[in-house]
Design goal:
Blueprint (H helix, E strand, L loop, with lengths): L4 H18 L9 E2 L2 H15 L4 H16 L1 H15 L4 H14 L9 E5 L2 E9 L2 E5 L5 H14 L3 E5 L5 H17 L7 E4 L4 H9 L3 E7 L2 H8 L4 E5 L5 E4 L5 H13 L11 E5 H13 L2 E3 L3 H11 E2 L3 E2 L8 H7 L10 E5 L5 H4 L6 E7 L2 H11 L6 E5 L3 H11 L3 E4 L19 E2 L5 E2 L6 E9 L6
Parallel strand pairs: 1-6, 4-5, 4-7, 5-6, 7-8, 9-10, 9-16, 10-15, 11-14, 14-15, 16-17
Antiparallel strand pairs: 2-3, 3-20, 12-13, 18-19
Helix pairs in contact: 1-4, 3-5, 3-6, 3-7, 4-5, 4-7, 5-6, 6-7, 10-11, 15-16
The structure holds nicotinamide-adenine-dinucleotide.
The site of nicotinamide-adenine-dinucleotide has 27 residues, from helix 8 and helix 9.
Length: about 475
């Protein structure tokens, strides 16, 4: 979509004035509550009412969510607001991500029934709701995760309490309100989707401990995933990644370079699936780097400049500095005092395996390249630097043995062969999308059925028509 700056400003002003008009104390409406306990009680009452609704109703409510998130004004507003509020990411790419979440997150069709009939009668096994789900959402994809989780969780018959990242509070609250407004218009019970007016770690803790919250879903870094897994409740953890890309001598190198730069630069490298380091066999390395530069990569060669960059964007080489997460390549280079063309998309450099750029999940368009002698070494290194996250990895190769070997050894939830990382979430690759990729707990690319319980219903005798 092309939307000019003046039009965008107009949309933002219009929506902001509506938010201001509503903000005068009306927090007990449209799913926003001052107290977390009240939000949960409301979601629990709503879930009871929701049980009486038909599958056709659920399908309509899912469509209402999709309609909110694909409305052009809403898309423009939430994408711009997210960049403004979090200071992270790229407006045009957020448009794509929000639309993707709205259009390709599965709805009720995901909830298939298993049936068994025979002399003893008929048994069905169906996906039933958990009840109230507590969902914790990240700064990196705040609205995408709310859209995608809302679709899947409501399709499965649940209600949801969101605990957004405090740094994405305004846009998250705005979205929850808009979803409630649309759900009300579609005839849904009130409070199927709720949150609090002041998201905080304290409120998240209240939510995690509340007996009426029956399932927890955490999309974020290792700390929050560990916390939900220690909660004593059914928990889904969608945690950190550090996706490596292997390139061997059999690959289509020109295409590999394009795919890698496209994937790595997407939303300034915020997606947890995005290419974070390249491991390339020596004989293909020079040509790969040459082609990456043709795709908008800028190579930093001097060791001193590489170390200056590392000191700037990491905290002692151990974690990324938040103020650089999701910033553009050009911005980062400017802050490091390095002159580069305006259209620079990704900063590349050659490093050793031990370098923090390889080891740390940076979430910025900085892409280290490590040379190795052969594809077996490359695969072994990729397994090491993925750190057992079981998240995402890529390979560019036309050697079936190498493709198979890496898939088996790395055991990531998403494994993309000969494509950009986002092919793994349904952009130019087959399959549905999700913004909650549950590696640690094994549900994989979550969808409605992930947020449901398996229940068996047995009718004894009869109903067998064979
Ligand atoms: P983050 O861990 O800082 O925050 C995620 C959420 O957890 C936020 O809502 C935050 O408020 C909450 N939180 C964090 N620590 C908490 C604590 N101790 N107690 C209570 N609440 C707590 O992550 P972020 O910076 O927002 O997002 C980036 C991280 O999330 C990256 O590591 C990225 O890989 C990961 N991520 C994973 C997926 C996935 O699907 N696997 C998707 C998006 C992001």
């Amino acid at each position: 979509m092309n939307i000019d700056a003046a039009l965008l400003e107009g949309i933002v002003k219009k929506v902001m004035s509506r938010i201001d008009a509503e903000a005068d104390g009306a927090f007990d409406s449209l799913g926003i509550f001052e107290k977390m306990d009240d939000a949960i009680e409301a979601a629990a009452a709503a879930q009871r009412k929701y049980l009486d609704r038909s599958m056709a109703d659920r399908a309509r409510f899912v469509e209402a969510i999709r309609a909110v998130a694909t409305n052009e004004e809403n898309l423009a507003f939430m994408s711009k607001s997210t960049v403004d509020e979090t200071g992270m990411g790229n407006y045009e790419h957020k448009l794509i991500k929000n639309r993707l979440a709205a259009e390709k997150s599965p709805g009720i069709e995901d909830l298939t029934t298993d049936a068994l009939s025979g002399d003893d009668g008929l048994t069905i096994v169906e996906y039933s709701p958990f009840g109230v789900i507590g969902a914790i959402t990240p700064t990196t994809n705040p609205t995408e995760t709310i859209i995608c989780n809302s679709i899947g969780m409501l399709a499965a018959g649940n209600t949801v309490v969101f605990s957004p990242h405090p740094r994405a509070k305004k846009v998250s609250i705005w979205l929850v309100r808009e979803l409630n407004r649309a759900l009300a218009a579609a005839g849904a019970p009130e409070n199927l989707i709720v949150t609090v007016s002041e998201p905080s770690i304290e409120n998240t803790n209240i939510m995690m401990a509340h007996p009426k919250v029956r399932m927890l879903v955490a999309t974020g870094g290792p700390a929050i995933v560990k916390t939900v897994l220690s909660s004593g409740k059914k928990a889904i953890g969608a945690g950190a990644g550090n996706p490596p890309v292997v390139v061997d001598e059999s690959a289509n190198i020109e295409k590999a370079a394009k795919d890698i730069i496209d994937g790595c630069s997407f939303d300034n490298n915020l997606p947890c699936i995005a290419e974070k380091e390249v491991i390339v066999v020596d004989s293909a390395a020079d040509y790969l780097i040459f082609n990456m530069k043709k795709q908008g990569a800028f190579e930093v060669k001097e060791p001193e400049a590489i170390e200056r960059l590392a000191a700037l964007v990491t905290k002692d080489g151990k974690s990324p500095r938040t103020e650089f997460v999701g910033k553009s390549a050009k911005y980062i280079l400017e802050k490091a005092g390095i002159a580069a063309p305006d259209d620079t998309r990704v900063i590349i450099m050659e490093t050793k395996e031990e370098h923090p750029f390889v080891q740390v999940e940076l979430m910025m368009p900085i892409l280290p390249i490590v040379r190795v002698d052969n594809v077996n070494e490359a695969i072994d290194m990729a397994v090491r630097v993925e750190h057992g996250n079981r998240h995402t990895a890529m390979i560019h190769s036309r050697n079936v043995d190498s493709l198979t070997k890496m898939a088996k050894l790395i055991q990531t939830t998403i494994f993309v062969k000969n494509g950009p990382s986002y092919a793994g979430i349904g952009v130019g690759g087959m399959g549905h999308t999700t913004f909650t990729i549950a590696g640690p707990t094994g549900e994989g690319l979550t969808s409605a059925k992930t947020f449901a319980r398996r229940r068996r219903c047995v009718l004894v005798g009869g109903m067998d028509i064979r």
